[in-house]
Every structure is written in C-alpha cells, then in structure tokens.
C-alpha cells in the first residue's frame, strides 16, 4: 500500500515486545553442533572431515512495570519496560569449494631455474615470448640458446626449462609465501578446504512505553548488535583460495521515539523519529600456515610508495585464462565505513463512514562515510593470450598483461535525502467489495559528496580536437596534463571531467529526476456473497535509488582519486615495459567509472490477480497470476574499449591481442584506460501463474 516506499521488494516489519502490568521473563538456549550434521560431498570424497558447525544462542529477557513504591506508578499502569539480552557464538567452517590449483611441482624454488610441468595433458606448451623491441630480453634468449616464438627447452622428464635469468624472484617469493595453497584434492590438481570462521554477536534490546495521558502514548526503543565475524576467502572479493580471509567488525544500532495521539475514536496521529546506524571494519587475516604480507627479500616496486599499502600486503594476482583462471587476493582491506540514517515521519489515520483514510509525510536523511574500494597494494593480471601463452609461466617470468593500483584509500562522505508523502483510502464500497486506493511520492535526488570531492566523465564535454596525450610508451604526455594538487604529487588528465558544484554542475554528478509519483490500487471482491470465493487483485508503481554502488564506484575518478593502469609491464616494476624494456618516470592513464548524466531513478511495476476458494473450513485453494516489470534498471557497460574500426584496424587489433601494441593508444577516449559507465537502461519483465492449497489448523 501507499504508506510503504523507497523499495519495490519485500518489506519486513519488526515488532518488539512491551512490558505489562505483571513481570514476565525467560531464559533460553538454542544449540547446534557438528555432530548433528552430514558431511559435505566433496570433503568426504577428499577424505576431509565434515565442516565445523557449533552454534550456541543463550539469552534471556524480562518485562513489566517501572514503578517506585509510594512514589511513582503505584497502580503500575503508566510506564512499562522490556529488556532482552542475547549472545550468539558460532564456529562454522567456510563453505568448501573445489578450486583448480598449481601442481605441487610448479611452485618454483628461489634462486633455481623453473622446471615447469604442464598442468594437464591438453595444456599448451609455453613458448619463448616474441619481443622484437626489447633488446635486453632478446640478449637473454640468445644467451640461453632459445628461439623467440618456439617452445622452451624440454627436459628428459617431460618438464619445460625456464632459465633462471628469466625468472622474477619476487613472483617466486609471492607464490611460496602461503598465498597459493599446495594442492590436496583430485590427484594433486585441485585444492579443497573448509576453514573455521568464528562469529560472535551480542544483542541488546530495550523498550519503554509511557502513558502521558489516556490518549497520548510515548514509546521508545533501542537495539544494539555487536558482531565480529571471519570470512574465508575474503569478503566482497574475487579471491579463489581461502588462504587469506577477512575479519569483520560490525556494530549496529537502531532507536525509535514515537508519540501516538488519539484525538477521537476515528482520528489517530503518529509522530516518530527513527535512527539507525552501523560501523564496518574489514581486516585481512591469514589462514593457518599462510600469509598475505611481503616476505623477507621481497623488493618489487609499484606506482606509489609502500606507505600507502597498509599491512604491507602482497599484490593481487590474477591468472587469467589457461591453465588455471584463478585469483589470489586479500582484497582492498583494511577498510572502514560508517552509516547513519535519520527519519522524521508523521502519519494520520482517519475513519469516515466506509472510508479509512491515511496520510503521511517523511524526510529520510542518511549519510555514509566510506573509504574507496580498490587495491592500494596493486593488482597484477597475467593473461594466457600474451607472451608465453601460459598465465603461470608469465607470472613466474614477471610479465604482466596489466598492472593497476589505487594511490590512496581516501574517505568519502556520501549524503542521501528522501522526501516522501502519500495518501490512501481503504474504501469499503459494499459488504462484498473493498478498494485500496493510494498515491505515493518519493523525491530522491542523487547522492552527493558532502565536500564536493566528486567528479564525473561527461562524454559530450570530451574535446576530441586535442592531441592524443598517450605516448608510444603507454604513459601520458606531461605537457598535456592538468595540474591538480589534491595529493601533492600527481598531474591529472581532465579532458571531459566535470567536478561537483563547479560552474553549475550538479553536486550528485547527474540530472535529478523528480517525476516519481507512484499510484497504488488493490481490491478484494466476495464473488458470490457467501465469503467462500474471493477475487483479489492489485497493481502499483515503485521508485527506488541505487543504494550507493554507483557513487562508490565513481568515487575512483580523477582528480579526487588516481588509479593508473598500465599494460604489458614487469611485475617487479610496473613502470617498465615488457615490450621495450624501457622504464618510464611519467604517469599512466587512469581508469574511471562514469555515471550517465541522464540517470533516472529505477522504476518497477507490480500487479496480480487471483481467486481464493474455501474448500472446507480449514482449507483454502488459490490460483493467481503475478507480473512485474522494471524500467531504468542499473547496468554497467564498457565505453572505452578498442574500436572495431580504426587506423590499420585489423593489424592494430592483432597487435593488441598479441601484446606487441598498447591498447590505451587506440581507445575512443585517449588519456584514460578502461571506462565503466553506470547506466539506467535495462528493462525487466516477470510473469508467474501460481497455484496452491493452504491448510489451517
């Protein structure tokens, strides 16, 4: 109905117990244990024990009147309380997953040549990279008696010899630091594990009810949850292996103060102030015998100083394509955010004859202080489509397809305002027909950054007449960069970038849309007047906002963040090109997320029609049709990919695929690497015919 908004999905209404004139209380304990459970199929096949699951939930509560003998509330009818305390202690094994893994023989030894065993009988043989413009590498090829474009030398035992002088010792250190696990499943080709992930929660609930007068009631409650939970693999990440996890601290709290005013038997008003908030801290933790920090002797450099890499985390490693297609990462943690929301609401209910009217207004103001979400330790990708043709060998040789790194984990301060109003009528047209008619409005201007540290890339403002700022080395020409001292160190390329609040550009970086009226209509009709056959139907429109992910992603845009990305570079020094062997001191293009300026709120339409038939006093049969449609739904698309037609089209695309050309030079918007655009273009549709029988006892 129209008194619910800012969401088209399910609505959960929570009711807390209140105290009564007599004292009531209870103590309880809920328990589950590993011994009660069956084993996971894959763990059992691998000879592993069942995942740990130990749950204890002790608690207790008490409620009753608040009174002071001979001083206050002797009649015990004015003020009441309810208090509940609960603990949850859970030790649970992480969800077991079977993951392709390096063969035990393919963990290289520091200071030794790498004797590489093919991961499978069908795996491609690694070849010596073809790098015609890298004189230093070609000298190694000649000295080792190899031929570019041909397989590495094969040992008598069938392995392939990668010479010591071609091996990146920092890659060897990372592989052996306990990041990638040793295989333990499926004849030594895969890894499976279930790691204990404890969860500790304490919940406090307090409610107070006070009768100011017989017609004026005041209610308040406070609820606090303190949670500490561990996840393996890392939370919100893409890591394939549970050798590193995440410790989450998440205290949360809600509070309500509501005044209920009964003016007459037909007129009721409720005024409320609602508050909710939570804090999240995420910290990487190592699994038993594993590590995610830089080991002794690790000396790889990155785009930015080590001081920006908290806890000295090792870079994320993506082995893309054959033979593994897996990722190891501690994610972008340690990381924090905090949320607080304040809602002020008034609802008036009025019964007039056959009409039950309800009207309401509210203002929901919330903000979220959150750090950026990208790796300050760097992300190195090794693709099987380049260099040796094998992602593992590329990693051991330190030849990265790409390397990206966020300069600093800035904190942003996001603000949302929601302005709402509604009117509705439950109209008993006749004893057999009831209508629910309503209209709701939710004004939802786009989220903005409190201090306007927010920028957007606007395609229409990109000046294509400027010279290409990307040099042959893949770096940016410093003479074409715009100076911006946000970090005190970098020069930014700002062609097409619009800053929040500057020269009339919206603070939310998009055009606000306020045509968000939402009609609602429902009915019930007693078909034959005997209360045994009832037709029910309804339809409604709903608008809601993307809950933050669009602005969180766009927060990585220059000039208020810098996340350069380079292609075909060395793992141990991403400023050095694999293709030429030359090291650059200049800046690399930055990736960014653009939010389309025409970015309307997401809309959803729901409708249903059905019949309910009482078969006998406790059995009801139901047949109904349910439909839903959505418009302006959020989607991501890449808008800075390599054009299909360009100068030397086929040869250019072949060169990029082979790693002999740098794709950044040939993109639609030179000066930036990948551009992801958040758009509201996707439409959805859902239809369902449902039948069932409900038994009541």
Question: What would you say about this model in short?
Answer:
By secondary structure, this protein is mostly beta strands.
Describe what this molecule looks like in 3D:
By secondary structure, the protein is mainly beta. It has helices at 41-45, 135-143, 169-175, 391-397, 549-554, 649-658, and strands at 24-32, 53-65, 79-93, 99-100, 114-116, 160-162, 190-191, 196-213, 216-231, 244-249, 252-264, 267-286, 316-320, 326-328, 335-352, 355-371, 379-383, 399-404, 411-430, 433-443, 448-449, 455-457, 482-483, 491-492, 497-499, 517-526, 533-544, 565-570, 590-595, 602-616, 619-638, 672-695. Helices cover 6% and strands 44% of the residues. The strands form six sheets. The chain has a 19-stranded mixed beta sheet that branches. A five-stranded mixed beta sheet has the order 14-13-17-18-28. Strand 11 and strand 12 (267-286) form a beta hairpin. The model is unreliable at 644-648 and 662-666 (pLDDT under 50).
The major pleated sheet works out as:
19 strands, mixed
Mean pLDDT: 91
End-to-end CA span: 29 Å
In which range does the helix fraction lie? under 10%
Number of helices: 6
Radius of gyration: 31 Å
Structural class computed from helices and strand pairing: mainly beta
Q: Could you state the oligomeric state of the chains shown?
A: single chain
Number of strands: 32
Measured by DSSP, the beta-strand proportion falls in 35-45%
**Uncertain stretches of 5 or more adjacent residues:** 644-648, 662-666
Shape: globular
Topology summary:
Elements: E1 24-32, H1 41-45, E2 53-65, E3 79-93, E4 99-100, E5 114-116, H2 135-143, E6 160-162, H3 169-175, E7 190-191, E8 196-213, E9 216-231, E10 244-249, E11 252-264, E12 267-286, E13 316-320, E14 326-328, E15 335-352, E16 355-371, E17 379-383, H4 391-397, E18 399-404, E19 411-430, E20 433-443, E21 448-449, E22 455-457, E23 482-483, E24 491-492, E25 497-499, E26 517-526, E27 533-544, H5 549-554, E28 565-570, E29 590-595, E30 602-616, E31 619-638, H6 649-658, E32 672-695
Parallel strand pairs: 13-17, 29-32
Antiparallel strand pairs: 1-2, 2-3, 3-8, 4-7, 5-6, 8-9, 9-10, 9-11, 10-12, 11-12, 12-15, 13-14, 15-16, 16-19, 17-18, 18-28, 19-20, 19-21, 20-26, 22-25, 23-24, 26-27, 27-30, 30-31, 31-32
């Amino acid at each position: 109905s129209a008194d619910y908004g800012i969401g088209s999905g399910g609505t959960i209404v929570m009711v807390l117990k209140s105290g009564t004139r007599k004292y009531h209380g209870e103590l309880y304990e809920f328990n589950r244990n590993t011994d009660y459970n069956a084993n996971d199929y894959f763990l059992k096949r691998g000879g592993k024990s069942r995942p740990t699951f130990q749950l204890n939930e002790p608690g207790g509560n008490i409620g009753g009147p608040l009174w002071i003998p001979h001083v206050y509330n002797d009649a015990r009818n004015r003020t009441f309380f309810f208090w509940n305390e609960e603990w949850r202690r859970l030790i649970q094994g992480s969800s077991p997953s079977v993951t392709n893994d390096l063969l035990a023989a393919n963990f290289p030894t520091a200071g030794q040549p790498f004797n590489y065993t093919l991961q499978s009988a069908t795996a491609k043989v690694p070849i010596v990279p073809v790098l015609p413009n890298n004189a230093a590498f070609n000298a190694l090829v000649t000295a080792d008696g190899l031929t570019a474009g041909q397989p590495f030398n094969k040992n008598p035992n069938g392995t392939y010899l990668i010479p010591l002088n071609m091996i990146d010792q920092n890659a060897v250190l990372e592989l052996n630091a306990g990041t990638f696990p040793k295989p333990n499943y499926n004849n030594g080709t895969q890894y499976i594990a279930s790691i204990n992930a404890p969860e500790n929660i304490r919940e406090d609930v307090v409610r107070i009810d006070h009768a100011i007068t017989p017609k004026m009631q005041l209610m308040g409650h406070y609820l606090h949850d303190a949670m500490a939970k561990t996840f393996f693999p890392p939370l919100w990440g893409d890591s394939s292996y549970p050798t590193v996890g995440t410790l989450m601290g998440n205290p949360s709290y809600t509070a309500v103060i509501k005044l209920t005013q009964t003016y007459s038997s037909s007129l009721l008003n409720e005024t409320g102030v609602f508050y909710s908030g939570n804090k999240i801290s995420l910290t990487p933790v190592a699994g038993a015998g594993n590590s995610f920090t830089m080991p002794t002797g690790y000396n790889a450099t990155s785009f930015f100083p080590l001081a920006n890499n908290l806890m000295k985390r090792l870079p994320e490693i993506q082995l893309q394509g054959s033979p593994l297609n897996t990722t190891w990462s501690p994610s972008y943690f340690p990381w924090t955010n905090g949320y607080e929301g304040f809602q002020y609401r008034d609802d008036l209910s009025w019964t007039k004859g056959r009409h039950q009217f309800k009207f309401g207004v509210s203002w929901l103001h919330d903000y979220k202080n959150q750090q950026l979400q990208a790796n300050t330790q760097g992300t190195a990708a090794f693709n099987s489509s380049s260099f040796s043709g094998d992602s593992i060998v590329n990693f051991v040789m330190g030849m990265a397809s790409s390397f990206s790194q966020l300069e600093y984990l800035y904190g942003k301060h996001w603000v949302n305002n929601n302005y709402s109003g509604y009117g509705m009528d439950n109209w008993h047209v006749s004893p057999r027909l009831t209508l629910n008619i309503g209209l709701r409005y939710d004004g939802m201007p786009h989220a903005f950054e409190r201090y306007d540290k927010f920028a957007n890339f606007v395609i229409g403002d990109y000046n294509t007449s400027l010279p290409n700022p990307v040099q042959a080395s893949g770096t940016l020409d410093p003479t074409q960069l715009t100076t911006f001292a946000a970090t005190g160190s970098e020069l930014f390329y700002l062609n097409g970038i619009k800053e929040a609040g500057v020269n009339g550009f919206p603070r939310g970086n998009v055009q606000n849309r306020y045509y968000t009226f939402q009609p609602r209509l429902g009915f019930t009709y007693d078909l034959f007047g005997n209360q045994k056959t009832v037709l029910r139907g309804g339809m409604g429109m709903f608008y809601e906002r993307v809950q933050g992910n669009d602005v969180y992603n766009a927060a990585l845009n220059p000039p208020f963040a810098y996340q350069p990305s380079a292609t075909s570079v060395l793992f141990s020094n991403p400023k050095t090109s694999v293709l030429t062997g030359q090291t650059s001191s200049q800046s690399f293009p930055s990736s960014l997320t653009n939010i389309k300026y025409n970015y309307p709120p997401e809309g959803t339409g729901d409708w249903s029609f059905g019949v309910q038939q009482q078969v006998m006093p406790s059995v009801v049969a139901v047949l109904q049709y349910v439909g839903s449609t959505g418009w302006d739904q959020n989607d991501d698309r890449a808008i800075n990919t390599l054009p299909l037609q360009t100068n030397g089209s086929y040869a250019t695309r072949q060169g990029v695929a082979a790693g002999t050309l740098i794709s950044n030079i040939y993109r639609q918007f030179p000066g930036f690497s990948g551009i992801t655009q958040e758009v509201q273009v996707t439409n959805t549709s859902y239809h369902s015919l449902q039948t069932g029988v409900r038994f009541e006892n």
